[in-house]
Design goal:
This protein has 144 residues and is α+β, with helices and mostly antiparallel strands. It contains 4 helices and 5 strands. The radius of gyration is 17 Å and the shape is globular.
Length: 144
Amino acid sequence: MSSLEVEALVENLDTVFAFLHKELKQYGVGMHMKVDVAVEEIFVNIASYAYDPETGPAKITVEEAEDPKRIVIRFEDRGKPYNPLVREEMDIAEHNRERKVGGLGIYMAKRNMDNLYYEYEDGWNVVTMEKLLKEEEEPEKEEK
């Protein structure tokens, strides 16, 4: 398990991605767009709203877990208690017709990860996301 603590600023997103990609590579996972989308959404939400108008720390932890094999990414902040996952499920067709700003990011995070959880523990907001690692299928052999 490895972790990174950074100031919760949008400008630190590249640092978060560099850490994430290094950790995923260590576990044999290539760059994964769905994970990037979810990580960006959660980190930007923390940076934008958790401490507003101030700022504070955000801790990101990455580990591999078994049964089933998966990557677990955990975000922690000491900002205002807020569960971003309680938002009502979005009707994408209506969202596009109404052209509302916001709300799509958490929807995308929920859709791109296999599990997403929120807890408030000892003054910390904790968002945990899991992505199942599927076994690589062997390439089909050419018939002679």
